[in-house]
UniProtKB/TrEMBL annotation:
Entry keyword Transferase: yes
Upper taxonomic lineage: Bacteria, Pseudomonadati, Pseudomonadota, Betaproteobacteria, Burkholderiales
Protein name: SAM-dependent methyltransferase
Keyword set, alphabetical order: Methyltransferase, Transferase
Matches recorded under InterPro entries: Methyltransf_25, SAM-dependent_MTases_sf
A Pfam family assignment: Methyltransf_25
Methyltransferase domain mapped to chain residues: 49-147
Length: 242
């Protein structure tokens, strides 16, 4: 899916209703945020975190509550989604700790490197594997030599005999978000055409190819998988991103 199509897709999701639409599936999100916070607990008290594809800011709000000294840069191509997060950040009293960037990562001005980055349910929209590796490389280049990545994506071996059964359970779960039958069928079509659902091992390999150590899968719930990784030892020994 190209950048323009991806941005249009999220703009069409009625940003003001996005959170309420998916509220019934919040346990997926909350469990991922809980584990991600555990992975990142050792970061400095005033760490700077890059959130790519921040959406309405769910992971930032969760991390900001647990780590009151952290600062966040929210990168989000959908201006309506970012506006929702900006309002929520003001309500939560964390707006002063946030930088809001409407656009893609490559348009974010370069500055001091980040201690960690999150990319939650983003990279599976990049269909070409070399471009997907480039996406992670762009994140790695923004990190400190010892920086961390938290990534999650839809992933599965779609050629495996069990995939059909897993997909059916997943679609029943999605129906819990009050999606119409038409919307569910659109989702099925999107999974075949507009989402790169790859085997978890392959996703891990793509991340590693971008300059990270071998990723550790630390989360799975249905089709959602999560990995953490650090910038590779070679990058760290070189004193910074290549």
């Amino acid at each position: 899916m190209n950048d323009e199509k991806l941005q249009a897709t999220f703009n069409q999701q009625a940003a003001s209703a996005y959170d309420s639409q998916w509220a019934r599936l919040a346990p997926f999100r909350d469990a991922l945020h809980l584990l991600a916070a555990a992975v990142l607990t050792g970061l400095p008290a005033e760490a700077h975190i890059l959130c790519v594809g921040a959406g309405t800011g769910a992971e930032i709000i969760a991390l900001a509550e647990k780590f009151p000294g952290w600062h966040f840069t929210a990168v989000e191509p959908s201006a309506p989604m970012l506006d929702v997060f900006r309002r929520k950040a003001q309500e939560q009293g964390i707006a002063s700790r946030c930088t809001f960037h409407a656009g893609y990562l490559d348009s974010l001005p370069h500055g001091e490197p980040y201690d960690a980055a999150t990319s939650l349910l983003v990279s599976h929209f990049i269909l070409q594997q070399d471009e997907r590796a480039g996406f992670f490389r762009g994140i790695r280049e923004r990190l400190r030599p010892d920086g961390w990545l938290i990534n999650s994506d839809l992933a599965s071996d779609v050629d495996a005999s069990h995939y059909g059964a897993l997909l059916e359970v997943w679609m029943r779960t999605m129906a819990g978000a009050d999606l119409s039958q038409e919307k569910l069928e659109q989702m099925r079509t999107a999974y075949r055409r507009d989402v790169a659902i790859l085997a978890p091992k392959l996703v891990g390999g793509i991340i590693a190819s971008a300059g990270f150590d071998a990723p550790v899968q630390f989360y799975q719930c249905g089709l959602i998988h999560g990995w953490f990784a650090r910038t590779s030892q070679g990058v760290r020994q070189a004193g910074g991103p290549a």
